[in-house]
Design a protein that fits this description.
Blueprint (H helix, E strand, L loop, with lengths): L2 H13 L10 E6 L4 H12 L3 E6 L3 H8 L10 E4 L2 E5 L3 H10 L3 E6 L16 E7 L6 E6 L3
Parallel strand pairs: 1-2, 4-5
Antiparallel strand pairs: 1-3, 3-4, 5-6, 6-7
Length: about 150
């Protein structure tokens, strides 16, 4: 390759936006120090490319109150990501959809600890990912999981 060709290619590469280099989303995972399934959920997000910082907090109610997580959908752990809360065992694809779409939600939740959900073992059971509108409107099903 001659110098002129090299410079043309280098200029083209320098002016082309980076493709495939999405910003890494940071997750703050609030969990009870004694909860193992919460750690498994965080590990799955780390393996999927998220930057996860775990904060062990024995007073999870304080976190949930601060983020205004409705009592009816509370679960064992609460995460914060890009202005949203993620309550419980919400799957990675639901969180990615939330971050791609940017709907006017406060967050997503999987109430309780359904077997087979992300971070939980056992035979998978059906569960819903619930959307919590930012404006205080009615909760609705964002995504449903139904095992085969």
């Amino acid at each position: 390759m001659r110098r002129r060709e090299f410079l043309a290619v280098a200029a083209t590469v320098a002016m082309t936006p980076a493709i495939g280099f999405a910003a890494v989303s940071s997750v703050i995972l609030h969990k009870d120090p004694n909860c193992g399934c919460c750690s498994s959920w965080g590990d799955a997000f780390s393996k999927a490319g998220f930057s996860v910082r775990t904060v062990e907090d024995p007073d999870m109610d304080q976190i949930k109150e601060r983020l205004r997580v409705p009592a009816s959908i509370r679960a064992c752990h609460t995460a914060e990501i890009e202005g949203y809360f993620i309550e419980g065992h919400v799957p990675i694809d639901a969180v990615r959809g939330l971050l791609d779409e940017r709907p006017p939600l406060a967050g997503l939740a999987v109430a309780g600890m359904p077997m087979g959900s992300l971070g939980m073992g056992g035979s998978p059971e059906p569960y819903d990912v619930i959307a919590i509108p930012r404006d205080g409107g009615d909760l609705y099903v964002y995504q449903s999981f139904k095992p085969d």
